[in-house]
Specification:
By secondary structure, the chain is mainly α. It has five helices and two strands. InterPro entries: ICMT_MeTrfase.
Length: 168
């Protein structure tokens, strides 16, 4: 395995490891939110999000593990991870991969002061950035388009669910 593929494998391991840790955090937070009386919305389309992200990772691994890294895109990915930490810290125990609404005011701190749904923007950027870091622009275009369609459904469901929350 050459230096090029070692870098690609390390990037892929980082992305996969990060997603696995996030799924554990999301599972824990979802359970706690539901125990506090939270209600889940959009469960009927959640499996599509899981399928989309699984296919994205599979495409990255299948086509990207031997690629030479494009370091500028790796840098963008690392900057996005700083934004991820900001988002996770801002939502705290309310961050999850599902739409679980509790009868509390919506979060208006951190990046949520500036933009609605920053986590979705971040994920959209990652779906482009990681394939570009692996020299796979077609994977970036394909999954950006699929994600845009999925986010149209997802954000609509989330906005509907959030509409009933008390104002902060």
């Amino acid at each position: 395995m050459g230096n090029a593929s070692i870098g690609a494998v390390l990037l892929l391991a980082l992305v996969i490891g990060q997603r696995l840790v996030e799924l554990q955090i999301a599972k824990r937070n979802t359970k706690a939110l539901l125990a506090r009386g939270g209600r889940e919305f959009g469960a009927e389309h959640y499996w599509l999000i899981v399928a989309l992200h699984t296919a994205w990772i599979a495409a990255l691994v299948w086509f990207g593990w031997q690629q030479q890294l494009v370091w500028a895109w790796v840098g963008v990915y690392l900057i996005l991870q700083v934004a991820r930490v900001w988002i996770l810290r801002s939502l705290g125990g309310r961050w999850t991969t599902r739409i679980v609404i509790v009868e509390e005011p919506a979060i208006r701190r951190g990046p949520y002061r500036f933009v609605r749904h920053p986590n979705y923007w971040l994920v959209a950027a990652e779906l482009i950035t990681v394939p570009m870091a692996l020299g796979l622009p077609w994977v970036a275009v394909l999954f950006a388009a699929l994600n845009a369609a999925m986010m149209w459904v997802r954000i609509g469901a989330e906005n509907k669910a959030l509409a009933g929350l008390p104002k902060a």
